[in-house]
Design goal:
Elements lengths: L1 H12 L18 E5 L2 E8 L4 E5 L8 H7 L7 E5 L18 H14 L5 E6 L1 H12 L4 E7 L5 H18 L1 H12 L7 H7 L6
Parallel strand pairs: 3-4, 3-5, 5-6
Antiparallel strand pairs: 1-2, 2-4
Helix pairs in contact: 3-4, 5-6
Length: 205
């Protein structure tokens, strides 16, 4: 397990973790639907040895990009990728209040129990770092190690980061911001392709 997490941390720090996505890895995994409180939750796991749970960013992203970047660790560990409620291949929530950090932590724990695992290691990216930390706080005896990538400690910090980025975009690129703002006024959701194209077009260097 020490080898797995050390290598993963080195690759993450070097900046290669998300650029070197292995497209062939997806064919090695199969969906396994776990029933949790009447919902079907998509879980994809492979490998043997010490288990690692991967928590994605978003908070609306599916597991795919993390699997492409880190699925290769199945060779040394058991890797576990989860589509949380309303994401990827999992069922949508019946009530929007179920989309929460608390519920994502609950689902992760239910997956751990249903897979009959004991201690697990956690890898979180962006929003997923909040889930990893919240899980570790609630279930400290279940956690072996934890790696946080581009993380923050709370929803408030995440919002502050978004506000800072929006201020940067608005003040440095006012013409581009006008387009984004006009789309926001039309109640465009962040996953909308046109909105994503414009919102992601601000230079960051």
């Amino acid at each position: 397990m020490k080898y797995c997490l050390t290598l993963l941390l080195i690759i993450t720090i070097s900046g290669l973790s998300f650029s070197q996505t292995d497209s062939s890895i997806f064919g090695k995994f199969n969906s396994q639907f776990i029933k949790i409180d009447g919902y079907k939750i998509n879980v994809e796991t492979l490998g043997s040895g010490n288990p690692i749970f991967f928590f994605t960013g978003g908070p609306g992203n599916s597991h795919d990009y993390m699997q492409g970047a880190f699925g290769q660790y199945y060779k040394n560990c058991q890797v576990v990728f989860i589509d949380m409620l309303g994401r990827g291949k999992s069922d949508d929530a019946k009530d929007k209040s179920e989309y929460s950090i608390v519920n994502d932590v609950y689902i992760a724990e239910e997956v751990r129990k249903q897979l009959k695992l004991t201690k697990i290691s956690l890898v979180g990216h962006s929003y997923g770092t909040v889930i990893a930390q919240a899980y570790a706080v609630k279930y400290p005896t279940q956690v072996n190690k934890m790696v946080l990538i581009s993380g923050f400690h709370s929803g408030e910090m995440w919002q502050a980061n978004c506000d800072s980025y929006n201020h940067y975009a608005k003040t440095h690129f006012p013409e581009k911001w006008k387009i984004v703002d006009s789309l926001r006024a039309l109640v465009s959701i962040s996953s909308d392709k046109i909105f994503s194209k414009h919102y992601g077009s601000f230079p960051t260097k």
